[in-house]
C-alpha cells in the first residue's frame, strides 16, 4: 500500500514539531528560519488536513489540544529516526553528545572514566553540563542525563547505574584525634558536616545511636557530596556520602569508612533520555559504554 497519499507536507509537519516543542510560534519561527506568519500558515494547513485544531491559542501562550498531544510525541520520534538514518548514512555517531549530570557524579565518577569513552569514539565530542535541575529534554539541547531519585519519571527511559546508599567517611587524621573511631557514637565527638542532612538521622537510627541533638548543631551545608568529601579529606569533619562515588579516596586512604553500616532510602543514580531516542547512535553508544563501565568500576 502506498503511504505517500496519507502524509501531509513535510514542511507543515516540521513546523508542528517545532511549535509543539517550544509552545511558541515565535521561537519555532526563529529556529526554522521562517517568519511567524509562514509557521502559522503551515500549522493551519496541517489542521485542515487533520480536521481538528492542534493548538489552543490563548492571549500570551499556546497549548496543545488533545489531538495535538496525541500527535506530538510520534512526530518527535519520527524526526529523531530521520536524524538517526542520516547520521548512519554518514557513517556512525559524530557531533556533540550533551550529558547533564549532578556535580558529584561529574567530579567523582564521570571525570575519571570519560577519557575511555572519548578514546573509543574520537569523532563524538562530549559536553558535560552539571546541574541539579531536572532536564526538560523537549526544550534543552541535552541528549542524556544522570539523575538521582526513585527512577519514576514520565516520558523517559531509565537505566539504574548504582544505588545512592550512604555511610559516614572521615580522614584518618581526624579519627586519630580522638584516639580512633571504635563505635558509631564516637562520631558525635567530632564535627559533623551538614548535620541537618536527613541521611545522618537515618544512619544513626540504623546504628542504634541516639542523635536527636544533631539537627540543632551549627553546621554548613556545602550543597554537594563532592564538596563535603573534600572538606572531610581536609580533616574538617565527618561527611556522609554514597560509597560508589568515593571508591578511589577510600581505596587510597584519604578517607576511611569506619563502619559497615550503610543506609539506603531507595534512591539510585540513573541514566535517562527521551523514550523516543533510544536508538539514536550517540545515545546508544553512550548507554552501552556507561552501563558496562559502571559494572566494571564497582566490581561485584
UniProtKB/TrEMBL annotation:
PANTHER family: GLYCINE CLEAVAGE SYSTEM TRANSCRIPTIONAL ACTIVATOR (PTHR30537:SF26), HTH-TYPE TRANSCRIPTIONAL REGULATOR (PTHR30537). Belongs to the LysR transcriptional regulatory family. Keywords: DNA-binding, Transcription, Transcription regulation. CDD domains: PBP2_GcdR_TrpI_HvrB_AmpR_like (cd08432). The keyword Lipid metabolism does not apply. Residues 8-65 form the HTH lysR-type domain. This is Transcriptional regulator GcvA. The keyword Transcription applies. It holds the Pfam family HTH_1.
Amino acid at each position: 500500500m502506498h503511504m505517500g497519499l496519507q502524509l501531509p507536507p513535510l514542511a507543515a509537519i516540521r513546523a508542528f514539531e517545532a511549535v509543539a516543542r517550544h509552545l511558541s510560534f515565535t521561537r519555532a519561527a526563529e529556529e526554522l528560519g521562517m517568519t511567524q506568519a509562514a509557521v502559522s500558515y503551515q500549522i493551519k494547513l496541517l489542521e485542515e488536513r487533520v480536521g481538528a485544531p492542534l493548538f489552543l491559542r490563548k492571549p500570551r501562550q499556546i497549548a496543545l489540544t488533545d489531538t495535538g498531544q496525541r500527535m506530538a510525541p510520534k512526530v518527535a520520534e519520527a524526526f529523531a529516526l530521520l536524524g538517526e538514518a542520516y547520521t548512519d548514512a554518514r557513517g556512525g555517531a559524530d557531533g556533540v553528545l550533551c550529558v547533564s549530570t549532578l556535580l558529584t557524579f561529574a567530579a567523582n565518577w564521570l571525570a575519571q572514566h570519560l577519557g575511555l569513552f572519548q578514546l573509543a569514539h574520537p569523532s563524538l565530542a562530549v559536553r558535560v553540563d552539571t546541574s541539579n535541575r531536572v532536564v526538560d529534554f523537549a526544550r534543552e539541547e541535552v541528549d542524556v542525563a544522570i539523575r538521582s531519585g526513585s527512577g519514576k519519571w514520565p516520558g523517559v527511559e531509565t537505566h539504574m547505574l548504582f544505588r545512592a546508599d550512604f555511610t559516614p567517611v572521615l580522614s584518618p587524621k581526624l579519627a586519630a584525634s580522638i584516639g580512633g573511631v571504635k563505635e558509631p557514637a564516637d562520631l558525635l565527638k567530632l564535627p559533623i558536616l551538614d548535620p541537618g542532612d536527613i541521611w545522618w538521622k537515618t544512619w544513626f537510627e540504623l546504628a542504634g545511636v541516639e542523635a536527636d541533638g544533631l539537627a540543632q548543631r551549627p553546621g554548613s551545608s556545602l550543597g554537594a557530596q563532592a564538596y563535603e568529601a573534600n572538606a572531610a579529606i581536609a580533616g574538617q569533619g565527618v561527611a556522609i556520602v554514597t560509597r560508589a562515588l568515593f571508591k578511589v579516596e577510600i581505596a587510597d586512604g584519604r578517607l576511611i569508612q569506619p563502619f559497615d553500616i550503610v543506609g539506603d532510602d531507595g534512591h539510585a543514580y540513573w541514566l535517562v533520555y527521551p523514550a523516543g531516542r533510544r536508538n539514536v547512535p550517540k545515545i546508544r553508544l553512550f548507554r552501552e559504554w556507561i552501563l558496562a563501565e559502571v559494572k566494571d568500576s564497582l566490581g561485584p
